[in-house]
């Protein structure tokens, strides 16, 4: 099969990132745009921009019939979903399969299986891979609470159809169990349309480690090493890095080969990520499989030298994997920071505004995957992530230093961002030593958001000094007026 025209069914930084690779491979490209959206980087890259409608912008990007109709109408023979929206929606993939349009990713059957946490967990356990002790509601709804209670505390409640941390609840005492189950059920119905639950034994101070895999759908699977994703706020990843500072070489091989084995068992096609909970004693347990490209895939690209989107497009076009396992290196260290429009000092309230000045960091080992431009309004219509700052260094210490320098020089004026908060995390001694867990941000919440030096004033000063137009105008002020200082009438 061949792919000549690609529709990217997404927006923002991931749409721009996919389009760059597609263009480099010589494909004709198209991208979606809701009528309310202003022009962004992706719209400038694509050969064609297709307007979609919906009662809300998000609803438009989730409208399966409309997007399938767009793909057929513009003559796209493949659709790349990016991440989020319909990227793990089996019904969307089935609709494309029915029309003969290639989905850049796994088959609808595999998404259907691995997207259901309960079925995926059972599939993995039946094939001898490690899973944490659990109680599954579907196995006996009438006895679910008693079976959960019998496991002992603490417990972690999860929606069966969940993802992204939504609907997950930690329970530490029996008195709260039934109320938390009902809360998780309501959230599962709200976010995923499915109120089924399961409960796992909660691992204290766990780490979140995931492995990038790539399969050709013909039984061949390779891994692109692991990513450490323990820096999370309310189960949402904030900073990711690779390699994980927690793993020995032997543990690294063990967890990566386990992930590849799970992907091989499901005859996986395309890019996917197998996620694990990693305990303090070195044991690890299957958490879930994300059947798509991850937000944090750039750190993998930085240490391996592979373009994962190019690999996805190769496989979607029916080509073989481009490399054997022995040919995939893990060189140096990479860290990704998610730059979000939110106020860390106000419980991470989403921020809105117009981007008045944008000066993104550049330099050796620095990459920015951005979805914003100067003059663009930031609203609450979509996820607050504006861009991703990715750095690479010869080792972890130098990568941290490079990340701190880059984030301190990331200028976005007009909307509040989390850059100061990210810098505070990087500067924390526990992060520097690698001694963190998924509870790190909650444990250090006061320290990381405590008022220190006036970061806003520093950022304003950096922004002003980075604006050549402003500096030039200041330098043109006559000596007489300059000596008057801050005099006012």
TrEMBL record:
Assigned keywords, A-Z: ATP-binding, Biotin, Ligase, Nucleotide-binding, Plasmid
UniProt-listed Gene3D superfamilies: ATP-grasp fold, B domain
Every ATP-grasp domain range: 121-317
Superkingdom of this protein's organism: Bacteria
Transmembrane intervals: none
Pfam families, per database record: Biotin_carb_C, Biotin_carb_N, CPSase_L_D2
Record domain Biotin carboxylation: where: 2-446
Residues of the signal peptide: none
PANTHER family: CARBOXYLASE:PYRUVATE/ACETYL-COA/PROPIONYL-COA CARBOXYLASE, PTHR18866:SF127
Protein name: Acetyl-/propionyl-coenzyme A carboxylase alpha chain
Gene name of the record: accA1_4
